[in-house]
């Protein structure tokens, strides 16, 4: 397999885009990524796009062809990939394989979702499609409810407190305030987080990621050609994916995401690095408890100590392991299909040293972790400065 | 890139499955394919599944994880791929690349759709998501209407008649009558076809493929390992995909599908064969006019002579170029996401010589052609006996 590099990375701002449609967002991120890579559309050989539920959000499937059309990239093959909220990460993985295999040289990978055109209850219903509809959502469980079960159990087993969860939100809002692409560019206090409205006990509104519109895009090339396009190529040193049961009740544990652990193990092996070598990570904090479990399952902290790590500032920008420098899903926003690609964009920018106020010093190796549903899919990528 | 072979192939019967759900169909096809390959689940390294609109048909996204779960294949990565009615073909292409790249050895590729749980107008609305919703479907065009425009123009330019289109339906029903997996296992007469109800003039009900439930599955392996699993591996000699504009009005021609022509050209080059070398083909006859255009665009017949070829029996089982031996989308049925994989199943069975009454004698090379929407995506595979 050939080595693969990111030669361009860009995103739209995340938020409520009332004056831009699904297509506008896609094109905006795509063109910005091509400009960042310094290449024109004719150089592109193929594309992948992650989107979770465009059929239900905007009535449109066949997003691959739509993007080829609206980006003026016909007749190249562009393929949509879906794995719920991990759709973006899976699209990146397909793009990686297409280049690694030698099938294609220059590949664009996009992620997009336009969620705010519908009301909250419709969105909640659609997001339910990421879980096990027949055993969970049709019976009344919502995603906050599923993660609340995990939070309760985590508290029970490890003494994780509401303050620890709130600390994740406070930290991610602090990072988001330094990111001009973030949906929420403002800090919140611990008190605000703790006194916010309960969504699914013990999760409050500030424990939950928002409903968001947005798109992100990276351009991939074989590493051996990457320096002819950019001075700062970022190698994708590993790409790994794993699965677990769709429904929560069938899992071995409620306090650990098995798919994350397996994907991480594979990724570390593929990249030849260990958890301690990772300088920063974008992890899937759809809820604050999800970030706490992620930093444990990825091996950054011992099981049960993820919440304490946040409370003690270990995952802050200037901590020992900066987590979600972009603001994460919590503050940067979570347009579901775009998130996995946005994580790759943030990692690329960090490793290039372009993150300004939120830059992690001397970052050389980064990791992104994208989860589908309540953990039935997890995908982990590791990036390296070359 | 490594060479890739199909070592197992199976499908459910296509039709109205009132007593089986989406999950049942997937598992049934998957287990049958594993049995056909003579392997157990532990040997599988990864999977891909094509489904067009499970979110709207059955309220469930995240189909990759669902299949890993219900097939007992956790924790391997399974990824859903979507390109409207070409979803199955695109899933096959991703599986092909995953094996070719060396990333995975044994890969399952499934296709599935459960369409009959909803009424016709809901299904029609959902299928609209394969075209350009904003410019076509929201304005009142249905898929039969779009293909009717192509049929009218084809008649105008090349003198294609309603009899010629009906001949496609009569031929495909004749083949379907010999296929125990087909939705319609009965022959129809030219008179029945011509006197059937008009759907979108000049297309009548017998010019249209039906609404169908079903699933299909193939198992892939590196060609070098294939003989250790089966006596009759079938090589996937080529896999090519191309795109065109999503909306019909933006095309250069209404009588030719450009994406088909480009994908076919690439596929012939990749396999080192010519159109005349193909012994049989499964082509995308979502409407009879679509088969007529396909046999022209694939280079089997000169432009404008596809209709005449059907009328003269050239595409019949005993003709010079047997087309849609399975019965095609028309008679075998069209569970949209499953169709591309079912085409691969039929080609495999034909090349293995297992098709009984509908067997094409001495078949050595086969081709499948799967189209998304009105032609915005096309994917062509070429299979060879080894």
Write the layout of secondary structure elements.
Two copies of one chain form a homodimer.
Chain A: E1 4-11, H1 22-37, E2 46-50, H2 54-57, H3 63-70, E3 78-82, H4 87-100, E4 107-114, H5 120-127, H6 133-137, H7 143-158, H8 162-176, H9 190-194, E5 198-200, E6 203-204, E7 213-222, H10 223-226, E8 234-243, H11 258-271, E9 280-282, H12 288-297, H13 306-311, H14 328-332, H15 336-352, E10 365-372, E11 377-385
Parallel strand pairs in A: 2-3, 2-4, 9-10
Antiparallel strand pairs in A: 1-7, 1-8, 4-7, 5-6, 8-11, 10-11
List segments of chain A where confidence is low: pLDDT < 50 over at least 5 consecutive residues. Answer: none
According to CATH, the homologous superfamily of the largest domain in chain A is Thiolase/Chalcone synthase
- Cα gyration radius of chain A (Å): 19 Å
Count of discrete alpha- or pi-helical segments spanning 4 or more residues of chain A: 15
According to CATH, what is the topology of the largest domain in chain A? Peroxisomal Thiolase, Chain A, domain 1
Oligomer class: homodimer
Helix content of chain A: 25-40%
Task: Give me the secondary-structure category of chain A.
Answer: alpha/beta
Strand order of the largest sheet of chain A: 3-2-4-7-1-8-11-10-9
CATH uppermost class of the largest domain in chain A: Alpha Beta
* Average residue pLDDT of chain A: 97
Largest interface, with counts of residues having CB < 8 Å to the other chain, equals: A-B, 66 and 66 residues
Order of helices and strands of chain A: EHEHHEHEHHHHHEEEHEHEHHHHEE
Q: Give the total of beta strands of chain A.
A: 11
Coarse shape of chain A: globular
Integer count of domains of chain A: 2
